[in-house]
Each structure stands twice: as structure tokens, then as C-alpha cells.
Amino acid sequence: MTQEIDYRGEASLLEHALHRLLEYASDTGVEGSDCIGAGWAVWSEYYGKTHPHSDEGGAVTSYSLQVEGCPRPWTVQVRRAKRSPGFEAMQSWQAAIQAAIVETFPNRQPLEGPVSLCLEFYLPLPKACPQRHGPRTNWLVMHQPKKFDNTNLTKACEDALARRHPVFGQMLILNDSQVVHTQAWKYWDMRPGGQGHTEITVAPA
Question: What is the mean pLDDT of residues 12-22?
């Protein structure tokens, strides 16, 4: 019997495609694992690595998600009547991380115990970068991303991961003190019109 699918949005259509693959496997005798593997590859590509990875026992081994928007470093608000632009930019980026957690993992409990982080910060190309292919290639070789301290970008990200969403309450870790190992890189966002994004993977250490 075909399972009823809610057709709201493209994600539901892809889920429906997975069910059709399973039906095909049942009707033709093709190994179900082959169909599932092919379908899951399409599903994961669509979500941009947003589903949790599990081992054979079903235990979650990592959470991965992508957050749009230029990464912003940790900034301390000095006591004043008006918040600084840097502090407000950091808060907006952290809010985007929290929103991505809610959207990607709506029913997941935060990881407990020690965790490791893999962070990839993609920064928008500056206006000084040439538009023509040849000069741009030479410019990229000579100019690696220097804006924003990697340590402060990591700190702001860790803080957002361990902060409950103000409405829905989701978080990926209980406290940033759980982080025992971190890998962090800075790259240019080479997508056409890219305004920066962050790829985050959290896994039990």
C-alpha cells in the first residue's frame, strides 16, 4: 500500500520519490539497499548534508548543517546606550544558526558528553577581487581570507550551538564546555553572488 504523502514543498516530493524507489525494489526484486542508497544520496544532496549520520546501531554519530549569511566573530558588548554594529551583526548570525538548527533538526535532543566540531567559514569576496577569470585566479592565490579572527568566529559559533532557541528551545549541545576538539577553516565563498555561509558538523568525541 502506498503511504500517503503531504505534498507541501519540494522536500515532500523527494520523500515521495524515496517511497517510490522502495516500491520499485519490492516489485522488481532489486536489492532494496541499492535503491535506498541511491535515493538517500539524492535526498542528502538536496538538504546539503543536513541530516544526522548514524552508525549501524542507530546512535547518532554527527549533526551537519549549513547556515547562510556572512560569519561574524565573537564580540563583547561594552556598556553603552546603543549596541555596537559588530555586536548586532554577531547576534544576527547566531540567530541564523539557531534558526537553521530548528529547521534542520526539529525533534532532536542535544548531544551530551564531549563533542568535536568541524567548522568551515565561507566569507564573501571583497570588491577588490577582479571579475575576470585570469586576474581573479592570481588574486585568489595571493589573497587568502584574513578578515575576522578564526578563534572569534569559532567562539561565536560555539555559543550559538549551545544556546536554546528563544521560541522552540532546540540546541545542538548543552554547553560549549563540551567541545574538546575543533577544526576550523576560512575560505572565500566562490558561489555566484555568494554572500557567505558556514558549514557545521558536530560529533561525539
Answer: 51
